[in-house]
Amino acid sequence: MLKPLLSVRDLRVDLNTRSGVLHAVRGISFDVAPGETLCIVGESGCGKSMTSLALMDLLPRVARRSADEITFDGQDLTRRRIAGKLRGRRMAMIFQEPMTALNPAFTIGDQMVEAYLYHVGGTRAQAVDRAAQMLEKVGIGSARSRLGQYPHQLSGGLRQRVMIAMALMTDPELLIADEPTTALDVTIQAQILRLLKDLQQELGLAIILITHDLGLVSRIADRIVVMYAGAIVEEGTAAEIFDRPAHPYTRALIDCIPQPGKTERGAPLGTIPGVVPLLIGRQDGCAFRDRCSLAQPRCADDIPTQDAGSHHWVCIHGGQA
Amino acid sequence: MLIYILKRLGLALIVALTVSVIAFALLRASGDIATALAGEGATPESIAVIRQTYGLDRPVVVQYFAWLWDVARGDFGQSFFFRTDVAGLIFGKIGNTLILGGASLAIALALSIPLGVLAAIYSGSMIDRAVTMFSLLGQALPSFFLGLALIMIFAIRLRWFPASGTDGWRNFVLPAVTLGYYITPPFMRLVRAGMIDALNTDYVRTARAKGLPARRVVFKHALRNALVPVVGLVAVQLGLLMGGSVVVESIFALDGLGYLAYQSISYRDFPVLQAVVLLLSLAYVVLTLLSDIINAWLDPRLRAA
Ligand SMILES: Nc1ncnc2c1ncn2[C@@H]1O[C@H](COP(=O)(O)OP(=O)(O)OP(=O)(O)O)[C@@H](O)[C@H]1O
Ligand code: SF4
Ligand SMILES: [Mg+2]
Question: Which positions fall inside the ABC transporter domain (chain A) (predicted)?
Answer without folding.
Answer: 6-254
